[in-house]
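User: I'll paste a sequence; please echo it back and then give the predicted structure.

Assistant: Echoing your sequence first, then the prediction.
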Amino acid sequence: MSQPTLLAVLAHPDDEVLCAGTLLAQRAAGSRVIILWLTRGEMTDAWGPLPMAEVAERRMELGMQVAQCLGVEGRFLSFPDSAVQATPEAGDEVARVMAEIKPSGLITWGDAWTRGFRHPDHQATGKIARDAVNFARIAKVVAPEQPHRAFCPIFTLRGVHSSLPTVALDVGGYADKIFEVAEIYRRAIGFGAPEWIEGRLRSSGGRWDRDLVEEFDAWETGSGLSASGPANAAASGYWPVLSRVQTSLRKVTRLSGSISSSCSSIPMDRS
């Protein structure tokens, strides 16, 4: 069985604080985890009048520092910060990365506003990443890489007004590391105060009878959300890999105004 690979396609180096626990959990389960930042975050004013090229270098260094702290890989593309556009060409560029990496699961931004993160780059990045899953299947787009046609379920950072099914991951076991990476960004650019991150996680946790939870919108509601089966995306979806390293995985599906839920408790292997 090949090693599962989780790809997080995000807009800016600091977005990953919202899914750090999930990245850690997946890495602890033995998967390859890669963060792909589309921009270098050069539009921040954290360093005053510093030239934009130098700001970009500092943001890239911060991103790689956080990736190392999380034990994952980090990569940057060179989309313009605060001007990301979801064009076919942008989708093709990310698709070529996907064809190289061949992810078995994707985390990215969704279409809906995510609480506290109303940045147009986020919505554009999410569309680019989701389109890229399909473009990566087209040989003429990704050549010389081989097309990536395996099932790659999509999970997006939970939107406030989203009507998509929700999956929730108990990340209480990773609190110290989550707050550590948040503090790296807080000290450098003033974003990501651990107290604020904790408040978000506790707010989500309250909906699941857990202390600290990360929530995602699920774009594939079938096998990708199964709580059983091997850690093999092609066979049973990607989320099961996450579920086995958690004490709880819950799935909520809204059907005709009703809510059905299932919860599985699985011993922790071990982000």
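Confidence is low (pLDDT under 50) at residues 221-271. The longest helix spans residues 52-70.
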